Amino acid sequence: MYMFRNRFIAATLLAGLALPWAVAQTEPQKTDAPLTLEDAIRLAQANEPAFAAAVAESRAAALESKDAKAALLPSVTFHNQYLFTESNHTNAADKQGTTSQSLPVFIANNSIHEYASQASVTEAIGLAGTAGARLAVANAARAEAELEIARRGLVGTVVELYYNIRAGTDRLAVAQQALDEANRFVEVTQRREEGREAAHADVLKARLGQQQRQREMAEAGLANEKANLELGILLSPDPSRKFTLVAETVPPVLPDRPSVEAAARANNPELRSALATLQESQATTLSAWAGLVPDLALHYNYGIDAPQLASNGPEGVRNLGYSASATVDVPIWDWLTSERKVKEARIRSQASKVALSAAERRMLADLTEFYNEADIARQELASLDASVDDAREALRLTNLRYVNGESTVLDVVDAQNTLVAAEIGQVDGVVRYHLALAQLETLTGRL
C-alpha cells in the first residue's frame, strides 16, 4: 500500500510538470507587429557584419583623411628636460676672468646642470605631405563609396528575402485553396460513384490530385519556413522568429525613365568608387614625384636652455631666447628609384581610367536592363490578374459540367491545374515586379 501511494504521488508530480510543457508546445508562437520593408532594412544594417565592417572602414578612412590634412599644418610641442653631467673637477673662466664655473666631463654637454624648457614649432613643406593628404582624401572617398555599395547590396538582399516571405505566404494560401478544392472534388466523385453516375476511376483520379495537392501544401509550408529562417538570420537574434509583413494592396508606380536616369547618374557609388581609385593613383604619382624635388623643413624654438631654470641667470644674464633653422634636402641620386616609381604610378593610373570607363558603361547597361525588367513586369500584372479570373471561371464551369455529366474527371483536374498555375504565376509576377523595382530604386539611391 505504501509503495502504491509513492508511485501515485510520483506520477502526479510528473503529470504536473509535464502539463505546462505540453501546453507550451501546443500554444502557437506569438508574432510581433507587422514588419515593413524599411524596418527590415534598418534591422539588417544593425546586424549584418559585412556592412558593419564597411561602416567602420569608412569612419576610419575619414579620420585618417583629417590626420593627413593636419600633418600639413605646423606642429607645436613644449619640450622640458633636465640634464646632469659629472664634473671633470676643473673650472672655466667667465667674462671677468674668474674661475667659478665647473666644466662637465662630457665635452658634448654644455654644463653640469642643464635645464631645457622650450616651445618648438615645426613645419615641413614638400610634395610628399601634399601627396599623402590627397591620397588619404581619395581613400576616404573610396571607402565612403564602398560603404554605399555595401548598403545597396544589403538592401537588395533584404528586399529579396522580404518578398520571398510574402511570396511564400501567398503560395501557401494558393496551395491551401487548391487542397480544399481537391478535397471537395473527391467528395463529389465519391457521391457520384455512390449514385452510379461515375466510375470508380474518377474517384481514383480525384484522389491522385488530392495527394498531389497535399504534397504541394507540404512543400509550400517548407519553403515559407525557409524564407522566414533566412530573414530571421539577418534581422533577429532568434532565427526561428515568425515575421508578419505589412499588407500591400496596390503595387508601387514605376517612375518615369528620365528621372531614373538622372538619379542614377548623379548618385552611383560604383562610379564614385572608380573615380576615387583614379584619384588615389594620381596621388600616388604625385608622391612618386616627391622623391625628385627638394623638401623644406622649418624649425623654431623659444624658451630656456641654460644652467638655471629661470628667465635670468646670475648677474642678470638673460636665459630666455629663441633659435630658428631652415633645412633644404635636395635629392641627387637614388639609382633611378624615384623615376621608376613615377612610371609605376602612371601605369596604375591608366588602369584606373579604364576601370572608370567600364563602370560608366556598366551603370548605363544596368539602368536599361533594370528599367525594362520593371516595365515588362508591370505590364504583365494586369494580364496575370485576368488569367487568374479566367481560370477560376473555367474551373467553376467545368465543375458544373462534370456534375451534369457533360465533362470528364480529366477536364476538372486540368482546370484545377490551370488555376493553380495561374495563381502561382500571379504571385511570381508580383514578386518579380517588386524585385525589379527595388533593383531600379537601389541603382538610383532612392532605396
Secondary structure: number of strands = 6
Give the overall shape, derived from the CA principal axes. Answer: elongated
Helix content: 55-70%
Largest sheet: 4 strands, antiparallel
What is the residue-mean pLDDT, rounded to a whole number? 86
What class do helices, strands and sheet pairing give? alpha+beta
* SS element count, helices: 9
What low-confidence regions span 5 or more consecutive residues with pLDDT below 50? 1-31
What is the beta-strand fraction? 5-15%
What string, H for helix and E for strand, traces the elements in order? HHHEEEEHHHHEEHH
Rg, rounded, reads: 41 Å
How is the secondary structure organized here?
Blueprint (H helix, E strand, L loop, with lengths): L1 H25 L10 H11 L1 H22 L4 E10 L2 E6 L8 E4 L8 E13 L1 H68 L5 H36 L21 H10 L2 H21 L5 E12 L13 E10 L7 H67 L5 H36 L3
Antiparallel strand pairs: 1-4, 2-3, 4-5, 5-6
Give a verbal description of the structure.
This protein has 9 helices and 6 strands. By secondary structure, it is α+β, with helices and mostly antiparallel strands. Helix 4 packs antiparallel against helix 9 (409-444) and helix 6 (257-266) crosses helix 9 (409-444). The protein is elongated and about 140 Å long. 25% of the residues are buried.
In short:
The chain is of the alpha+beta class and 447 residues long.
Please supply descriptive tags for the structure shown above.
alpha+beta, 447 residues, 9 helices, two-stranded antiparallel sheet
